[in-house]
Predict the 3D structure of the following.
Amino acid sequence: MNNQKNKYCGCLYYSANAFARIMTKIAEEEFAITGLAPSYALLLMSVNEQPGIQPKSLSEHMQLTPSTVTRLIEKMEHRGLVKRSSVGRATEVHPTKKSLELKSVLKKAWQNLFKRYTAILGEKQAKELTTKVYEAFLRLDQEYITND
Amino acid sequence: MNNQKNKYCGCLYYSANAFARIMTKIAEEEFAITGLAPSYALLLMSVNEQPGIQPKSLSEHMQLTPSTVTRLIEKMEHRGLVKRSSVGRATEVHPTKKSLELKSVLKKAWQNLFKRYTAILGEKQAKELTTKVYEAFLRLDQEYITND
DNA sequence: ATATATTGTTTGTACATACAATTAAAATAA
DNA sequence: TTATTTTAATTGTATGTACAAACAATATAT
């Protein structure tokens, strides 16, 4: 008995995007206590954990384009949350005092986010969905590269 | 044996977004034959099928904000793909000859998209994933509204 | 019948993300 | 050693999406 209220809900492109939008909205709410949007928060967590990490590496961790990462870093540098230093052709991204102070709040927000969607979806289902979605991402991503 | 290559892949927010981005990229490729980006294509399919449909209704079908729908319609009107007419406070969106001519290509593109990700993920898995993702969306969306 | 609230649509503005082109450094080949 | 190719990062620009505010039409309450 498929809930066919919606014409497009059988399309993975459509469902994936609707789902990502609501997840992002929820994540924004939960990360509000850090004063950061979710992607900035993730980036900062990486920088705090691996001081000197390079944009290339960040873009792989976050599955975002290098240019996007540059943009995120620019804004955080402007807010005094990271420092950049050039080392050859590479760039090292370092945390500041201010960002290190956010460490515990960031962790808290991340846990809260996890708790929130887990409470709604159920622990087992949430875990399974996360895994399945990520695996599907990997498969599509793999195929996409080899398709060039 | 969890593939823990990535720090964030256990986070549903992260996985959902990474997945939606790659799905969108693939959808863009498949809808390229229509000359439209995927969301415009979906909108046009709705308009073609229900001439006179209102933005409100479209925004529900597509799970997009009314303002977003207005923006999509504006651009399509500018390209001569739909016409708007005011009826009281409502707006009716009508297909043009040009958009009706696209009907079969749109359908084709949509089928190709379906085939493409189905070939990669497997028919059963793709179907299951679509359903699970959509159901999770509904649950979160529901909870989000009542949380206000 | 008039005032008030609700609803559908649009507008101004902002933001996250990406692509294509560019720069600069490093690695490899000649 | 010089020339060429590859790689990391950045910049210009574009796009999809949303929020908040404004408008305009309708419905409701007094």
Remarks:
- Chain B has a mean pLDDT of 94.
- Residues 24, 37, 39, 64-65, 67-68, 71-72, 88-90 of chain B lie near DNA strand D (CB under 10 Å from a C1').
